[in-house]
Design goal:
single chain; 281 residues; alpha+beta; Membrane-bound Lytic Murein Transglycosylase D, Chain A; L,D-transpeptidase catalytic domain-like; 3 domains; two-stranded antiparallel sheet; globular
Length: 281
């Protein structure tokens, strides 16, 4: 009888051990891997960093830039910006796209919209710019001119400039678009707008002003290239200006959104009267 009880107890112990072994196997095989996977997905402790899917495109674009393939590099970075906005390379990609776009615009590298204008007798830069929907500054910079002098039969590279501006006051960014395509982004260094000027605003550029020694001047003046400039829109108090070193908060400060001098020179070159300006939050 005692032997039977011993065998029954041994059998029960074996069954218990088998159950514990099965439970341990199930834990290691199914439960623990799922818990680890969940931690990875939730970004918890021990989670692996998600792969940066945009970096491969960024690296390829950098190699294209080294080979002088500006258009292909720019297009690869635009692809990155559209489909991988979470990439750590996004901000640098956007900066490079802006620089490449400007380089392509101001260089003599052929582009579909660039054409050659042969100067006719009696023409002036202002009329050439108006007829070709471009700016005087663009013609001068693209063609390497330091003065406004032009000559009959001189060939000038021209291009229509139909850009629009988006001013993001909350994030202090001024972005230029070529229709719907991103062109370049600029940092807003300061803002001083009348209380009644708030987003949303839709207006246009009404005037581009050049100023030197307390007097206005035009592009024929010898001081034109180094003078102070600002852009006035159709909304009272909404100017695009150069940030001055002595600018301070206060009512005496000029109204407008402030950018660096070099950025304003670029904007003065690529924007023309009638360009769309939108102010957003």
């Amino acid at each position: 009888m005692a032997r039977i009880k011993f065998l029954v107890a041994l059998l029960a112990l074996l069954i218990c051990a088998a159950g514990m072994g099965g439970a341990f196997y199930y834990w290691k095989k199914f439960v623990e891997p799922e818990m680890v996977l969940n931690r990875h997905m939730e970004g918890g402790e021990g989670a692996r960093e998600k792969p940066d899917l945009g970096k491969r495109h960024f690296d390829q674009a950098v190699e294209l830039l080294k080979d002088g393939e500006l258009v292909s590099a720019r297009d690869r970075l635009l692809y990155l910006m559209e489909y991988f906005p979470e990439s750590k390379t996004f901000d640098e990609a956007k900066r490079i796209v802006g620089e490449v776009n400007l380089d392509l615009l101001l260089s003599n590298i052929p582009q579909a919209e660039k054409t050659i204008h042969k100067v006719r007798r009696g023409e002036a830069l202002v009329t050439i710019a108006r007829r070709n929907e471009t700016t005087i500054d663009y013609i001068m910079r693209t063609n390497g001119k330091s003065t406004s002098l032009i000559y009959p039969d001189e060939e000038l590279l021209v291009r229509p400039l139909n850009y629009r501006v988006e001013i993001d006051l909350e994030n202090s960014l001024l972005t230029v678009f070529d229709e719907e395509a991103f062109f370049k982004e600029y940092e807003i260094l300061g803002k001083n707008l009348p209380p009644e000027v708030g987003p949303p605003i839709s207006t246009t550029i009404n005037e581009k002003v050049a100023w030197h020694m307390d007097r206005p001047l035009n592009f024929t003046d010898a001081n034109y290239l180094n003078c102070s400039k600002w852009i006035r829109t159709g909304k009272i108090g909404l100017f695009i200006r150069e940030q001055k070193p002595d600018d301070e908060d206060g009512e005496s400060r000029s109204f407008g959104v402030m950018v660096s001098k070099s950025d304003l020179e670029e904007l003065f070159t690529i924007l023309r009267n009638g360009s769309q300006v939108n102010v957003v939050n």
